[in-house]
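User: Please predict the structure of the protein below. I'd like the answer in structure-token form so I can feed it into my own downstream comparison script.

Assistant: Understood. Taking the following sequence of 471 residues as input:
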Amino acid sequence: MTHPTPQTMGQQFGRRSWAEPWKIKMVEPLRVTTREERERALAEAGYNTFLLRSEDVYIDLLTDSGTNAMSDRQWAAIMLGDEAYAGSRNFYRLEATIQQYYGYRYVVPTHQGRGAEHLISRAAIRPGQYVPGNMYFTTTRLHQELAGGIFVDVIIDEAHDPQSLHLFKGNVDLDKLEALIRREGAQNIAYVSLAGTVNMAGGQPVSMANVRALRSLCDRYGVRIFLDATRMVENAFFIQEREEGYASRSIAEILKEFCSYTDGAWMSAKKDALVNIGGWLAVNDAELFDELRNLVVVYEGLHTYGGLAGRDMEAMAVGIEESVQDDYIRARIGQVRYLGELLTDWDIPIVQPVGGHAIFLDARRFYPHIPQREFPAQTLAAELYLDSGIRSMERGIASAGRDPKTGDHYYPKLELTRLTIPRRVYTQAHMDVVAEAVKAVYDARAQTRGLRMVYEPKYLRFFQARFERLA
């Protein structure tokens, strides 16, 4: 029997292979469950992957939030924690690091990104004001709405098309934004909510040209721009790779320039900053900072710890330094792309181009026979877990929630299942296992039926909703 000549990872795609810029010095054993065990676990979880126990999961691609592997330098930093209630030296180290790499003047630590979203929404939105943004994110929009804001999507149309090959699908449509400002009045615009590598669009980046033009437009009308910087390092990589004039610029330089066009930012440090918990909010306006620093005491903790231990802030500062290293981010994006290339070569429908932190399976094309009201993306996440114990998450109608005026579901154009790759955690062999599992589920797609929601919490329903199979 003749076997094909083995090929390396690089040879498969006509290039030289690359390797991760780190080596492994500690491992966490994984357990492969049986199909019967997974069926029982999924039923107990109400077909919601968020409700699965982690011990029942083989490869966990639910999220990249707080699931990353910290470096030896970060673990060493843990031992330098100054747990003083007030004035921890770790806060001042974190503050200086954020000022150096992100460029903002004033820094408020928070327990995670959600805490920062809450604070900026409380401080910067008056009830009835509009908050235009480049596609919604679940927790961001909720905090804006709870503060009385009205979210308006002003992302370019290509972002809603999973097959569009536009290189910067996260861009703001400046015509849409200006039409909103003229119609409602600049005084009724709280701020522009700008996100890097737009999550709900498939991890799609914003170009430097677009944020520069956005700054010019907002300056004409006196509108502020606040940035969700959660995955801005990944966004900087795409600018370096795709945008003219940036190929020779470092990731750190690109990141700081991008932030310079905005008035402030919030960040879930559990992503780019490579820590398990933490976040921050930073602004350039002293008066706004004074209000935020006061609010953080009410909701998070004193302004020099914001709900975090000193050791967490020290590890975060080190993580920020490591995140902007060009070799690191090249390998991080490379692993995501490798999985995307396998699936693309097998004609499995995913969002194109491949984004920064995840592969987004296009559940609409995966299951064209399942109507959106029967939760095709949630169904796909359940089927993938049943096949191989791989946990993913829904980014479609369940995540979109309900229209508060009509009570009906929001019906987003994108119905996606997200395979989120934690940083520095899994090997290329794990990516091969994931790709083969997706293919197995895709090959069996014709026999798959949808789900019915049987329990729905009031807020952010996708976290805790429960489903059952349709006959």
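That's the full token string. The mean pLDDT is 96.
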